[in-house]
Amino acid sequence: MVRESDRQKFVQLAQARVNRTLKDLQLIGNLSNRSNYDYREEDVEKIFRALNQEITACRKRFELSKRKADGALFTLE
Predict the structure, then answer these.
(1) Which of 22, 41, 67, 74 is the most buried (most CB within 10 A)?
(2) Does residue 2 register a pLDDT over 90?
(3) 39, 58 in Cβ contact below 8 A?
(4) pLDDT tens digits for 5-59?
(5) Which pLDDT does position 73 carry in this prediction?
């Protein structure tokens, strides 16, 4: 059973953190301006590899949490 205060805390923190992350992603996008910055394609690949790895790890944490809540830790099917 989820308490309403836990839900409210989640919503408040999730909104703040996602909005902050979206703003930071926009700032990373600003680095693409070649008139202000010099970068290599390998730099861009490293940036997006790191971001994708962290997104994947974050999603897995939510999926693991859901599996634990469902009680399905291991199945063959």
Answers:
(1) 67
(2) no
(3) no
(4) 999 999 999 999 999 999 999 999 999 999 999 999 999 999 999 999 999 999 9
(5) 64
Helix, strand or coil for residue 37?
Answer: coil
Q: Is 71 left (phi over 0), alpha (psi -120 to 50) or beta?
A: left
Token couple for 53: 């790895």
- Taking alpha carbons only, the member of 15, 25, 75 closest to residue 48 is 25
**Alpha carbons 24 and 13: distance in angstroms, whole number:** 16
| Reported confidence tier of residue 71, pLDDT bands at 50, 70, 90 | confident
Joined tokens for residue 76: 């063959």
74 token code pair: 């291991």
**Are the beta carbons of 31 and 39 closer than 8 angstroms?**
yes
